[in-house]
TrEMBL record:
It holds the Pfam family RNase_HII. The gene is rnhB. Manganese or magnesium. Binds 1 divalent metal ion per monomer in the absence of substrate. May bind a second metal ion after substrate binding. PROSITE patterns: RNASE_H_2 (PS51975). Keywords: Cytoplasm, Endonuclease, Hydrolase, Manganese, Metal-binding, Nuclease. This is Ribonuclease HII. It is found in: Cytoplasm. Endonuclease that specifically degrades the RNA of RNA-DNA hybrids. The lineage of its organism: Bacteria, Pseudomonadati, Bacteroidota, Sphingobacteriia, Sphingobacteriales. Coiled coil: none annotated. HAMAP family: RNase_HII_B. It comes from the Bacteria. Its main location: cytoplasm. The keyword Cytoplasm applies. A divalent metal cation binds at residues 16-17, 108.
Length: 203
């Protein structure tokens, strides 16, 4: 059973990102402050839920959260500052957009760049431990998926509606055959040796 938050003394926001391992598109992040009595039966790490469950939970979270915000860092910025720094920046932007200023942040993962004047804790697999991080994972994932489905209409050959920019066999083959789109991260290499390795690991 997931706990509501990491600590109870300060106003706490859970933070998570989506799209870090993708070949194309932005990395999205969300920050969420939940009420102490928040209950959502299916709420869990977004990776453990299906599309329909995530979309249903998104509606509940956006309606019932004390405050929530979603932000992104696009592929151009990712190529300039690297994906790790881009993930931190996206979370900072999400925190900055919150209508209620948090006094404490809990971050999914083991690394974070300190947000000015707000203490934080990094929680490995935090989206499976705390509801506010799980809620952030849902919002980051669903908002990013929505973005990828929209740009997929411009470039259907990569099948982003299905793979959301992740390095599936179809996506890699399309990139090797047709070249990169304007949305691809150019610092993420797509080579045939990598494709072969990926194929083996998928099989």
């Amino acid at each position: 059973m997931l706990l509501n938050c990491y600590q109870n003394e300060l106003v706490e926001a859970g933070c998570d990102e989506a799209g870090r391992g993708c070949l194309a598109g932005p990395v999205f992040a969300a920050a969420v402050i939940l009420p102490k009595d928040f209950i959502a039966g299916q709420l869990n790490d977004s990776k453990k839920l299906n599309h329909k469950q995530r979309e249903a939970l998104r509606i509940i979270i956006e309606k019932e959260a004390i405050a929530w915000a979603v932000a992104e860092v696009d592929h151009v910025e990712i190529d300039k500052i690297n994906i790790l720094n881009a993930s931190f920046l996206a979370m900072h932007r999400a925190v900055e957009k919150l209508s209620v200023k948090p006094e404490y942040l809990v971050i999914d993962g083991n690394r974070f760049k300190t947000y000015p004047e707000i203490p934080h804790a990094c929680i490995v697999k935090g989206d499976g431990k705390y509801l506010n991080i799980a809620a952030a994972s849902i919002l980051a994932k669903t908002h990013r998926d929505e973005f990828m489905e929209k740009i997929a209409e411009e470039y259907p050959v990569y099948q982003w509606k299905q793979n959301k920019g992740y390095p599936t066999i179809v996506h890699r083959n399309a990139a090797l055959t047709h070249g990169l789109s304007p949305y691809h991260r150019k610092t993420f290499s797509i080579s045939k040796p990598q494709l072969a390795l990926f194929s083996e690991s998928e099989g």
